[in-house]
Design goal:
This protein is an alpha/beta fold and 468 residues long. The chain has helices spanning 23-30, 44-53, 72-85, 114-137, 147-161, 198-201, 205-212, 231-244, 287-302, 308-317, 341-354, 374-381, 401-414, 429-438, 449-466; strands at 62-67, 90-93, 105-107, 110-111, 166-170, 187-190, 221-224, 249-250, 255-257, 266-271, 276-277, 280-281, 325-328, 333-335, 363-366, 388-391, 422-426, 443-446. It has an 8-stranded mixed β-sheet, with helices on both faces. A 6-stranded mixed β-sheet has the order 13-14-18-15-16-17, with helices on both faces. Strands 9, 10, 11 and 12 form a 4-stranded antiparallel β-sheet that branches. It is globular, with a radius of gyration of 22 Å.
């Protein structure tokens, strides 16, 4: 893989006049739970047409794409951090945000400003309107522009105007039809595969893997992370690589040196195509696999070994918001964005390193989304906590609290545990958090990214109000 494959051109500017939205209006469009305009989609062609209208901002920098079910956000974050440490001006696009929409877009390790976010959304909206006006005038159906389409295009405009060298793009859903696939990445990574977005991607691992494997194309370096090796998934990946004439780098094994004390950094070893690395992390142990995947992706993009000292510094400093994240110390509130059985198992394992005895752990606040493997999530999380509180996230895909409480109650009964271990059912996250805060009881919130973000946001707002 040659370094800096994309031809660099002059500084990018939006090629037409744009009506600039206020930040609040840009957020309103981003938060639209339906569709913003049109009725012929959603289609990947929508994003391609918008980018063409904008004279392809994504061709002013290199793109790397990270797909998968588990670990893709952390892998994308680690990759951007590594490339920054190697002297590249690196951008990062992830989803969803933990608290605020601009968090989805970072440049050189910093979240973009509210003004830049609003400008990017303004440019994307203007492009969509121009495309649909032209289609309507020609007697064609207007494209449907989803919020994710809008935000992806906005991010690419922001990155191009900021003259980044490379952007690491996390796939939102699947891969085949994802908005990030409107770009032409020079290298891709596929992290662990699990049951995810089953109503759209399919209800088997092989079907879901097929949608994610669509990012494998001729001429792209490919990294396969842990979890891509379940037999049915591996077969799909192998077939996709053969069809594209690609020999993937497979991250099969990462060896760990356990920390001497809880909370200490740990070292791990990973072998890539070009070198053996032994960097450190100040994270739960499971993040070593995601870091190893990022190391291989970054190395393939640069087409050379990484600088070991810079790698160590980049990984140690890289934040992973919402992943085993203490958002309040007293009383403790720990959030984790685990949202399927595999990521929940990783979280529970990390929790076991800190608090081995289930009876000594805080209560669990759980919420779930309807398009996830809710029964599998409940089966993993409920046995790991002494008491469980149930709530409903503020998402149109949220499972009603009473339905989730029924599943939790059934899981408790099957384990011979008393009904009293179901500590409460709360119609909203805010009500649940207020109840535990007033009681000064510690809490762990897990089960969906939306829940983690709501809890973090509520506590941030509470701290802001409390300031003199």
């Amino acid at each position: 893989m040659a370094e800096a494959l994309t031809p660099k051109t002059d500084a990018y500017r939006v090629p037409f006049a744009v009506e600039e939205l206020a930040y609040e209006e840009a957020v309103r469009l981003a938060a639209d739970t339906g569709t913003i305009s049109g009725d012929a989609g959603p289609l990947l062609e929508t994003v391609i047409a918008m980018l063409d209208e904008l004279e392809r901002p994504d061709r002013h920098f290199d793109c790397l794409q990270v797909a998968g079910t588990n670990g893709k956000t952390s892998t994308a974050r680690f990759t951007a951090a590594i490339l920054g440490g190697e002297g590249r001006r690196a951008a990062l696009y992830t989803s969803p945000q933990l608290v605020r929409y601009p968090e989805r877009m970072e440049i050189a390790g910093r979240v973009v400003s509210d003004g830049a976010f609003a400008h990017g959304v303004s440019a994307a909206r203007a492009a969509g309107r121009r495309v649909n006006d032209r289609r309507t005038a020609a007697g064609e159906r207007a494209y449907t522009i989803t919020p994710f389409d809008l935000l992806t295009v906005a991010a690419l405009v922001i990155f191009a105007e900021a003259a980044v060298d490379v952007a690491v793009l996390e796939v939102g859903m699947g891969g085949r039809w994802d908005a990030t696939s409107a770009t032409d990445p020079v290298a891709v990574a596929i992290t662990g595969i699990g049951l995810d977005h089953m109503r759209i991607l399919g209800d088997t691992l092989a079907a879901i893997a097929g949608e994610k494997a669509a990012v494998i194309k001729r001429g792209r370096a490919v990294t396969l992370g842990e979890g891509a090796h379940e037999p049915s998934v591996q077969q799909v990946m192998d077939e996709a690589c053969r069809a594209a004439g690609v020999v993937p780098a497979v991250v099969n094994h990462v060896s760990l040196t356990a920390p001497a004390h809880l909370g200490d950094a740990f070292s791990f070893s990973t072998t890539t195509r070009r070198a053996i690395y032994t960097p450190r992390l100040m994270k739960p142990l499971y993040q070593a696999q995601n870091a190893a995947c990022a190391i291989q992706l970054a190395e393939d993009y640069l087409d050379r070994p990484l600088d070991p000292a810079a790698l160590d510094e980049s990984l140690m400093a890289c934040p992973t918001p919402g992943r085993f994240d203490t958002v309040r110390a007293r009383p403790l509130v720990l959030v984790d964005a685990c949202h399927n059985p595999q990521s929940c198992e990783a979280f529970v394992s990390a929790l076991g390193e800190l608090a081995p005895a289930v009876t000594e752990r805080p209560a669990l606040l759980i919420a779930a989304l309807t398009d996830k493997d809710v029964a599998g999530i409940v089966d993993v999380l409920v046995p790991a906590f002494p008491r469980i509180a149930v709530t409903q996230a503020a998402s149109p895909r949220a499972l009603p609290a009473e339905e989730l409480a029924t599943l939790v109650g059934e899981r408790l009964a099957s384990a011979g545990r008393p009904r009293s271990d179901l500590a409460g059912v709360y119609p909203s996250v805010e009500e649940a958090l207020c109840a535990y805060t007033e009681a000064e009881e510690p809490l762990v919130a897990a089960g969906t990214i939306t829940l983690a973000g709501e809890v973090a946001g509520l506590l941030r707002d509470a701290r802001a109000v409390a300031r003199p």
